[in-house]
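Action item from last week, closing it out:
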Amino acid sequence: MSAIVVYVEHQESGIKRASLEALGAARTVSDNVVPVLSGAGASEAAAALGGAPVVLTGDAFSPDGLAADLAAVVKENDAKAFLASATSTGKDVAPRVAAMLDSTVFTDCTGIRADGDAYAIVRPWLAGKMIATLRCTAPVLCATLRRNVFEPADVPGGGAPAERPASAGKTVMSALEAKEGGKLDVGEAPVVVSGGRGLKEADNFGIVEELAAAFGNAAVGASRAVVDAGWRPHAEQVGQTGKTVAPQLYVAVGISGAIQHLAGMKTSKVIVAINKDADAPIFKVADYGIVGDAFEVVPALTEAVKKVRAEG
């Protein structure tokens, strides 16, 4: 099959899982996958991938400069597709690459398949009401892939990166200040516990945090109404105007299930809804539903999770 270029993000702990998932998706449809990494430490990270990944040397990050380099790699390899994970960086860079290739960008895709000598993608359509299979009429398909959907690629090590200097861009990021706390990102966590207006006030979010802590690998999410009320930070918002998530387990506490919220979590593997309103729309998409008072159900569920983990 024709080549696929994948932009791979990394950090101090190694290749980001979201990028390994993008590589895994690409390798299911092509044997010719070209990973591209950039920034400080890229050569070391690239070596873990095996093969001959491309490394753009230089410590500074410039989105337009990076996009120009990625477009150049696509052209040099006569690639028919460019993929990136639907992270903040991927969403920043992918449209720029598409513009430089006179293409368009398909966002938040959940599938990719071979389509003759090119590729087609699968993505939710109309706020998740439909699942569409789309083919790009431009020479190169450009897409971002939803996190926690694809199986991550193996990292065999022993790679021999091909280095080239990164292009200077008009915009350069001079510094990055990470928030303290080390909390799991709601978009990457395998388990997400979200709260809504049914919790009545901000202080009651403690039961959601305790349940998330009991799982040990969970992030706390929130509905738009909760974020708009100032109860939780925007980084935790799940929905059409927040983050799209696809965890192994999504627990919705006191969330009615407006269409905007469902669009952001409908592709979760297992959905558990806890709401005292038996007619709440959230129950229509839930795999398991508990009709009851969250202030009674959630603490009991937290204790049950703790017990199972202690025994296991």
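Closing note: The longest strand covers residues 118-125.
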